[in-house]
Design brief:
With 320 residues, this protein is mostly beta strands. Helix content is 8%, strand content 42%. The chain has 3 helices and 26 strands. The protein has helices at 279-286, 288-296, 302-308; strands spanning 2-6, 14-20, 23-29, 35-42, 45-52, 60-61, 66-67, 70-75, 81-86, 93-98, 106-113, 119-124, 130-135, 139-144, 152-159, 172-174, 180-183, 186-189, 197-198, 210-212, 218-221, 224-226, 234-237, 254-257, 263-268, 272-277. The strands form 7 sheets. Strands 3, 4, 5, 6 and 7 form a 5-stranded antiparallel β-sheet that branches. A 4-stranded antiparallel β-sheet has the order 8-9-10-11, with no helix packed on it. α1 crosses α2 (288-296). The longest helix has 9 residues, at 288-296. It is globular.
Length: 320
């Protein structure tokens, strides 16, 4: 089931219209917000359905559903293409579609073959020139999609989605600035698209879903990470309180940042969909001195400075 929500007042989301029925495996919005794609199973069948969101309270189906047991779907940034992964035929392929005519998407070329296991995650780079795909065997592949009728594979398999028990899904995401790729808990420098370089060891072990903030400075992956130094990410925390409960966002099955980076949205089977206000966390990272002075109301005295900051020259930080 798919439910649309109005987040104008983020403290009180309101439901828009009636739910779209059917078991839903994937939901994605186009960059302009005019179109939604849903992978829905209903009445014994399965398909990707496209919806016109001109009236958000009454989505209108665009054309006929695209058949296939769809696992994941994503739009290119320019809105002209979308990619789907399917559980059909072993699920090891990815299909690109021309979306120029929203009512009649056209399959572009042959499916992308390279994975040996079911592909469950797919993402376009911000410029649309690369596609990343991830499978359940913890492997990712980069594709050059400059010519979307003939995508070509870039380099070898990218490992790094750390399997835990039977949950070994590879979640994949590009940073908006185009410099970094996350395959689960591993970060890659993709300055040279043909030779991605891992940026240090995995951030954590176990299954994680990943999402970058709009400014590329924060990664959600089992927690929040400051990427000011990509080779040495700093943890910004992973546990948040929610109605007296303490869910760890490592348990999230899906995550996304709001366009302004102030809200993190998580979904999980146990806690449903939760919106987290992370504006204060971002402020603390960007202005630690100002935040500390606001809390304490004064600078450290010289004795406190020596005790807590040995080796640094004393500064009357809060008087500047």
């Amino acid at each position: 089931m798919v439910v649309l929500w109005d987040l104008t007042d983020r403290s009180r989301p309101t439901r828009l219209g009636s739910p779209l029925t059917g078991y839903t495996g994937s939901v994605m919005f186009s960059s302009d917000g005019r179109t939604m794609a849903t992978g829905i199973a209903k009445d014994g069948g399965a398909a990707v359905t496209l919806w016109d969101l001109t009236d958000r309270t009454r989505p209108i189906r665009l054309g006929s559903p695209l058949a296939g047991d769809i696992i994941s779907v994503t739009f290119s940034p320019d809105g002209h293409t979308f990619a789907t992964t399917s559980a059909s035929d072993g699920g090891a392929a990815v299909t690109l579609w021309d979306f120029t005519d929203r009512t009649q998407p056209i399959r572009l070329g042959s499916p992308l073959i390279g994975h040996t296991h079911t592909v469950v995650s797919v993402a376009f780079s911000a410029d649309g020139h690369m596609l990343a795909t991830g499978d359940v065997a913890s492997a990712g592949i980069l594709w050059d999609t400059a010519d979307r009728t003939r995508p070509t594979r870039l380099g070898g398999l990218l490992t790094g989605c750390i399997p835990e028990l039977s949950i070994d899904v590879c979640s994949i995401a590009f940073s908006p600035d185009g410099h970094t790729l996350a395959t689960g808990a591993v970060l890659w420098d993709i300055t040279d698209r043909t030779q991605p370089i891992p940026l240090g060891p995995p951030l954590m072990t176990g299954f994680v879903t990943v999402a970058f903030s709009p400014d590329s400075r924060t990664l959600a992956a089992g927690g929040l990470w400051d990427l000011t130094n990509r080779t040495r990410p700093t943890s910004l925390g992973s546990v948040f309180s929610y109605d007296g409960l303490v869910p760890n966002i490592a348990a999230a099955s899906s995550m996304a940042f709001s366009s302004d980076g102030r809200i993190l949205i998580t979904s999980s089977f146990k806690f449903g969909i939760v919106l987290w206000d992370i504006a204060d966390l971002s402020y603390l990272r960007d202005y630690p001195t100002e935040r500390a002075c606001a809390i304490t109301g004064r600078s450290l005295d010289r004795d406190e400075w020596v005790r807590y900051l040995p080796g640094l020259v004393y500064q009357d930080t809060c008087s500047r």
